[in-house]
Amino acid sequence: xxxxxxxxxxxxxxxxxxxxxxxxxxxxxxxxxxxxxxxxxxxxxxxxxxxxxxxxxxxxxxxxxxxxxxxxxxxxxxxxxxxxxxxxxxxxxxxxxxxxxxxxxxxxxxxxxxxxxxxxxxxx
Length: 124
Known about the structure:
Helices cover about 40% and strands about 30% of the residues. The chain is α+β, with helices and mostly antiparallel strands and about 120 residues long. It has one domain (about 5-124): Yope Regulator, Chain: A.
């Protein structure tokens, strides 16, 4: 079974060209956080062969979310494995997939891109 460190490293370094020196603090299968520009964080966990991703997006202005709703939902419809929960001042995005899938690095990269596009739409 793949380790979370190996999966994250291959995805971020090989697929997104992130500097390998930034990955030095990732250890074993401990949960980790990827911080996006603007301070939004993607939480990543590997538990019992399943990678879990969680994003908590603070809603600073509800009008932005209303105006960008179509763009947000287009991103979510493109990836049927991402679930959206809306609370008073926050959007929560949750998804999970098996680490044993044929190309877990590609699946993780696709999920990260989709989550990032939703975050960008909700915050701009």
